[in-house]
Amino acid sequence: MNQNRKLVRVPPPYVDRGRQFGLDLVAHYAAGGSPRSRARSGDRGTESNPIRQAHGKIGEAAVAIYFGLDVETAIKWEVGFADRGTDITLANGVRLDVKTTLPLFNLCWSRTINDLYWQKEFDALVSVSIEEKDWSCCHVEGWITKGGFYHHKQISNGVNPRLERGTWFVRKRILSNIDDLPYLPILPACERTVIPWSIRHVAGANDLIFAA
Question: Is-contact 57 78, C-beta < 8 A?
Answer without folding.
Answer: no
